[in-house]
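Q: Got a minute? One more chain.
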Amino acid sequence: MVLSESMLSPLSSLRSPIKVTLVDAYGDGTIWFSLKGSCDRHATLCIDGRAESPTRYRLFDGGRHPNSNNMTLIDLGGVEEGIVIPVVSHWVDSGEMERWFTEYGVEKFLETFNRYGEPQVQAVRLTNRSTRS
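A: Always. Here it is, folded:
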């Protein structure tokens, strides 16, 4: 079942038990997952995997891609992070991922998920200056 944005709840409103119900990825490295809590509440979140993004490897609530409307960037160390990362980690460890993705898909999913929260350092180009005597 695909849920429209109007049917989604904020992640913080989900109550235990919470489980992963749908997972996919974009070619730009962004991964997304839908979670279902008690009382049939659903939330969709994504981890930004875009190479040049200032929010790369950060978690967003409210949709499948950081470019979607009304997305909320989740604070590192926030309550929401403490909900979703363990739930998705459990899903990864359960072996369910191999049912959703090809071997290449598993590799790409883990490439983004395992780097969640990693700081992004802006590349600094060093110039080599030579001095003449």
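A: The longest strand covers residues 19-25.
Q: Perfect, thanks.
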